[in-house]
Amino acid sequence: MTRELGQEEFLRCDLAHIPPHFIRYLEETPPEQWEISGGPMPYGYMFYAHDEDGSAAEIIPKGLMTLFAWAQKVGCAYVYFDEEGEPIEGLGTYDESVDLWAEFRAKKTAVTALTDDDRERLIYAAQRHGEASEPYMEVGDLQDLLRLAWNTMSNQQHLAFINAARAHGLDVWARERKSKE
User: What is the C-alpha separation between 19 and 54, in angstroms, rounded?
Assistant: First the structure.
């Protein structure tokens, strides 16, 4: 394999390899103040695979240093810890790390004011997912969005939503199915 100047290989692995206390450090400390080379990514973190004898080794948990050393042995200069990455057999994981990261992510992405554009962005994201993979993915994403919306609504909002759906004839298939049962 020929590499371009500056081109480096990276290892993608499960976010659960990061101990919970270190995720807390990463989330509560601005990235520019981290004592480790790396940064937040949309679905996890990317780090330089630090050497065990470097200055960052003092703050990096031992398990991560082991993972960084393993990454270097397989020719990777960077490690991408991803919420959908695969765990590396033989290297420790922490189930609570994924939950903790999800909590921090939810707090960061919480929205306080919405527009119609926000709604349409969610619909468009589902559409793009279907175009990029399989059409049923769009339907599944839209079903998930409906369920999420429903779970955040009050009983009064449920009734208003059902009545609006009926007014637009959107529940006709459900009524026909129920009458056949």
Answer: 20
pLDDT digits (tens, 9 = 90+) for 44-75: 899 988 887 767 778 888 888 899 999 999 88
Judgement on whether residues 104 and 121 belong to the same structural domain of the protein? no
Angle ∠(43,48,51) on CA atoms, nearest 5:
140
Residues of the domain holding 90: 10-109
What's the structural domain count of the chain?
Answer: 2
Summarised one tens digit per residue, pLDDT across range 113-171 is 667 777 888 888 888 888 888 888 899 889 988 888 888 888 899 899 888 888 888 77
Specify whether 84 is located in the same domain as 128.
no
Among residues 75, 109, 143, the one where a domain terminates is 109
